[in-house]
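Give me structure tokens for this 247-residue protein.
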Amino acid sequence: MYKNKKKYGSSLDDIWKTLKSSKIHLEDLTLDVVVPSFLEYLASYSGLKKLQVTAGGFLDGIISDSTAKQFFSAPLTNHIQSLEDLGIIAPFEGSWCFGPCNLAVISRCTNLKKLRMAIISGQLYLPPGNLDKFEDVGDKPNVVKLFIDTVSHSMPRLESLAISAANLEGLRWALCGNPSMQHFRQTAQDIITSVYKYEALPTCHRLPHLTVTVEDGRKFIPGGPGEGGRLRYIDTNPPTQDDDYLW
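Here you go.
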């Protein structure tokens, strides 16, 4: 299996090397395997408008994180002025997910109209108790709040934001799917709870439509301002008393 993957990766390398050497500058890219030559190709030009990437093809989380850090440097920053649609699907939690490690780069993509990224469940810091809104949890911001605050402040053209969950790195080789299902279920609940508690920054006058991309997706629309004068999100399909959980 490993040899086959290596051969498949080599054939993909040839494709990106050919595009780079031929100076063919694509404006729309969708791919599900990331190889080093793809990053070199992206870094060789600017003008990409749509990028949908599934960060797959990695047998090791350390290699995946290392590649992600390369991606969020020149390969992405060369296109921050032209990108209108960016989707990064992370099969496993790590550096491909939105977080403090790539916040500065993502916030520079000011012309985005659509954005989709996963978050790391361990960064869903929620205050204790059934509170109506966030309170500080030490110096750790809830990653959903951080994500929405970032895009609402930096991306005036953003129309839709999708936040998804990723599998735990420790379950990469799990033989049973139940732990993964439980993880996705709990993470979905925590993301939705975070959206319920969210209040926009006082300077925010516009929020993008929001989807929590678990199963069929949970859609939220901007609402408010509320009693505090801040925008919030309204669940378009709120749970009923018969629902066992939030999603």
